[in-house]
């Protein structure tokens, strides 16, 4: 294994996308925050399911991301989809089409914190828009 690492280093084929070790700390800090958001969204969806009248207001919204790399965009899109009540339908460039159960909670501003945290986890603090 050491020979492979030395050869990969000498051939200059180790990069940020191929070697995820530089992002372990970023993802370790992102994961607890994401779990908290998933729990909060689960509570909202469970309340909607338990109510006698279905008061959802589905909406499709375009969300602009500040993520630069494909890994950061995938992290952001998957985080949206993992959160109950929202699904990333399409990713095109720096825009994502998101379906949400509640229109009032699906405004593009509602995704800014997740976008920023995804970018920092995947690209590091220095990667900014």
Automatic annotation (TrEMBL):
Membrane topology (UniProt): Multi-pass membrane protein
InterPro entries for the chain: Cation_antiport_E
Keyword Methyltransferase attributed: no
CC per GO annotation: plasma membrane
Keyword Membrane: yes
Signal peptide positions (record): none
Molecular function via GO: monoatomic cation transmembrane transporter activity
Subcellular location: Cell membrane
Keywords attached to this entry: Cell membrane, Membrane, Transmembrane, Transmembrane helix
Family: Belongs to the CPA3 antiporters (TC 2.A.63) subunit E family.
Protein's recorded name: Cation:proton antiporter
């Amino acid at each position: 294994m050491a020979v492979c690492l030395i050869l990969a280093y000498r051939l200059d084929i180790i990069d940020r996308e191929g070697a995820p070790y530089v992002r372990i700390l970023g993802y370790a800090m992102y994961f607890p925050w994401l779990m908290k958001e998933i729990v909060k969204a689960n509570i909202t969806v469970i309340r909607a399911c338990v109510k006698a009248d279905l008061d959802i207001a589905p909406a499709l919204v375009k969300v602009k991301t500040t993520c630069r790399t494909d890994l950061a965009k995938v992290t952001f899109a998957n985080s949206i989809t993992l959160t109950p009540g929202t699904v990333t339908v399409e990713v095109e460039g720096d825009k994502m089409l998101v379906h949400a159960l509640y229109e009032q909670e699906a405004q593009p501003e509602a995704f800014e914190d997740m976008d920023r945290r995804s970018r920092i986890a995947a690209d590091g603090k220095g990667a900014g828009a």
